[in-house]
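Tutorial, part two.
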Amino acid sequence: MNKLEIGSAPELQSLHGPHRFMASVTFRQIRYFVAVAETGKISAAASMVGISPSAVTEAVAELTAVSGMKLFDRHPRGLTLTYEGHRLLAHCRNILSAVESAGYAMTRPTHDISGSIQLAVTITISGYFLAPLLAHFRQRFPAIEVSIQEVKRSDIEAGLVSGKYELGLMLVSNLSKHADLVSHTLVRSMRRLWLPSKHPLLNAEIITLDDVARQPYIQLLIDDAETSTHSYWKAHQLEPNIVVRTESVEAVRGLIAFRNGVTILSDTMYRPWSLEGDRIEVREVAANIPTMNIGIAWPRAKNLNLAARTFVEFCRIECESGRIGGRRNMPIERE
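Running the prediction step on this input gives:
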């Protein structure tokens, strides 16, 4: 008997709201829903979880029926989450993380690993990457103390070389001290076009960088973003029509949502809603735009202690599994 049939059983018909949801939902439905949400396609989700597309479709339909909400919008390129779908996704990820953590606790003792780490992070990392990573790490390694300082990339590099910091989490695409540092790229996040709902470019079959050049452009400044933007625009012999420069990602979202311009930023930083609740769309650009690479670095001349080595290995496993950074961000090998 499938879950849709179970959901109609007399003992469940008397349940309402959260109690009915708890009694009906399955771990399989949650796992397949998250896979579809992160890939945007049934076929890609099926490949990710190693099951048939029809089984994924059935599980998502069951979860939709159990929740009583529309979770996805269909479009020619695949599926996108609705507002209700985004709310559910956050909880489903927490469920998967909790189950995975329980399995980890049963198979690997962590109480005997202790120590401290001086970790430096850039503003992009602290805003869009650090929180879930740190929460999971502290849950699994409670005896390791992590002290964190947010500084600029250049200051992290100098601090690693001088011994002020043991590890640095940052965008590693722009590292300058390659001779002095070892880096491991954890996440490679696609850069795509952000634009408001009902924008004319949403109807285009293909969007080129030349199309973007004709639009007013909102330029983010943090974490060398303007330098990165300039490099790939210059490579295409084009220039963006910059109308606003800002260090606030929320300002970027608000300006786009209110139709003041467009921008190209990474999937890691993307959120589909502005603070005012207006929709922000995202589309790929047919151009050779480099990914935003998030990584961890440490001094080449110094051997890492056990706590630092544990943190590096933890980051690698979390990102390669897709639990941190999102499955659209492809993990790559150590540089």
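The first strand starts at residue 72 and ends at 75. In part three we will examine how such features are distributed along the chain.
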